[in-house]
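Hi Prof. W.,

I finally got the Protein kinase domain-containing protein prediction working! I wasn't sure whether to trim anything, so I left the full sequence exactly as given:
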Amino acid sequence: MVEDILRRLQQVHGDMLITEQIYNETLIINENKVFTTVEMKLHDFGMISPQRIDRNDFDNKIARELGYNFIALQHQVTELIPQLTPEVMFSIKFYVK
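And this is what came out:
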């Protein structure tokens, strides 16, 4: 998997070599897949866990939802928002704070 990420980056940056960031990205991808399957992190198996700079990088609460087509959902939301009543819009704005 590290080689796949490296090849993808080499298409843009021809002289790219394996770096700690590429290795870490591979760990993040693997940990995300493991979590969606068994709801455990890599360290639960005695393996090295990735260093996540952004703590919201992978929200465990929605891990099993990753199979959704987010682009289609966003399109549907965009179409439906204008149809909401003013009361519902107020409620959404109040609770989303």
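The helical segments are 2-12, 20-38, 70-80, 86-96. Does that look reasonable to you?

Thanks,
D.
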